[in-house]
Amino acid sequence: MARGRNNNSSNGKQKDESPKVKISKESLRQALILFTYLKPYRGRFILSLVFIALSAFTTSLFPLFLGKMIDAASPGATLPGMGSDSVGSQFSAGLKNIHWSLNTTLILIFLQLGIQTVFSFMRVYLLTEVGEKSLADMRKDVYSKLLSMPMSFFTEKRVGELSNRISSDLSQIQDAISFTLAEFLRGIFTLIIGLAFIFWISTKLALVMLAVVPVIAVLAVVFGIRIRRMARKAQDQLADSGTIVQETFQGISMVKAFTSEFYEISRYVKSIYAVVSTAISNARYRGAFVSFMIFSVFGAIAFVMWYGAGMIQSGQLTIGSLTMFVIFSMFVGGTFAGFADMFSQLQKILGATQSIREILRGNGEAVELKQTVLEPEYGLKGNVRFEHVAFSYPSRKDVPVLKDISLTVANGEQVAIVGPSGAGKSTIASLLLKFYEPNNGRIFFDERSSSEFPLSQLRMQMAFVPQDVILFGGSIKENIAYGKPGAGDDEIMAAAKQANAHEFVERFPERYETIVGERGIKLSGGQRQRIAIARAILKDPAILILDEATSSLDSESEQLVQEALDNLMKGRTSFVIAHRLSTIRNADKIVLIDKGIVSESGSHNQLMSHNGLYRKLNEMQFEFGAVTQSPVPE
Fold it and tell me: For residues 410-423, b (16+ Cβ closer than 10 Å) or e, as one string?
């Protein structure tokens, strides 16, 4: 249980945030590659950057007008004239000494606010539009790439992890385009304009302020990093406690059967008190941080005001200029503090872009990612031949599953693949569908090597009915039509009738529009199997692959499903992977796989006439069936 808890909690953490990546030249270069998705929208993107600069500039005019308003209420307030005769100095002195009436200043402030509102609206609107459209393109490419990845990729990745890549990681990148980038550029502009203004107002006071603000900003960053680290630790611990609750209720029957209520309560209490301990420690840091910031910020403002007041007394500064200076100083200080959070956000964004780049650079299968039509030159009759095929899974290359498989199947023949558990029966189905390539040997279709067929053209002519049927969360009609997109209602209904599904579908109030639920949870096992068979019938494949399609059904459902399978197998090459040997006695050929080779091959009667493994397996299943079905003695 501990192992499962760790996995789940790590998944929960992945969903909350992307891993941080160290900022380096290479990581930045990889991130910038994804900005190629902005190319189709570069005109609007550049325009949004212009509006960011204009928004920052117009925002910075507010303290200027506010200072002039205060000076307007103090008649005779002037600053000493500048000694230099240069054009820049004359303009600077003129701007410092310009005076507007209170009414004029108020009108200018509202004019500035109105213009700034338009600029802010345009920058948000344009960046959001660019971010959403470029992200949609990126989502499409990532999803398409994931769909084209080979089966070996999906055996090594968790579904939750892949979903997280499409949702969380791409959302991080969208935030980078729509928000983080805008705020970063706006902060740069605000910082430059703010520093220019405070030096313009008073070089002495600016130097005093810059001696204090960076110290506060650095200490704020240090505190902030520590607080965020503690907060993340508390989140992880909380996720652990949530996983304990989930595990306990999922396995409630085991908890009660083993009278483990006390143990589970102890485990949960230990987990939540770990959260409490971390939260209290974090509260100490946050309390110290808040106290420090209140003292530092207000102390810095008081110190600057004290120094500025002395300059006012000596006639070096006006009250309005000091007001401007304080507000501009707050702009500069706030921007410094904001950069720390942006730096942390940038690390997360780089982590997200690295994950997405790994997917986009992956080697996918050569499948068609658009609707394709079967080309006559690749049409199959249904002849299949395995020639000395050997295979081991990529994750276990040192464990051979198939060692030397040679097998010939004629068009329309029904072949049963049987053997002990782990013999490699389902692996043959995977090789037929080209989920994997053989390590040695070749597979031929109509005496043409499988490598000569485009992958999509080959799979279009096969249908697969697994033991654990996967239905999608839509309607029954949509699930059947999955075998032939665009099929009409009559075709769907005809396929359902052949699959013995029409009768139970008609009993539902919404009939073919009935929603099956996630993975078909609203249907019984037999009903799901018959929907899957209807889907295969509608596809009308040349080659059919059945992987223990009746092994988990009750007797009544098995009979209905077996009838449907008989309808499906008529006139087409069929590979039936079977565990219950009683279901494949009428097969044209039975192939027994054992220890990676074809151990026995022939009809049921032929194989039973020999004292081989097939006969032993049959006798074992017969004896087991007789024992389980015998009446209980009174």
Answer: eebbbbbbbbeeeb
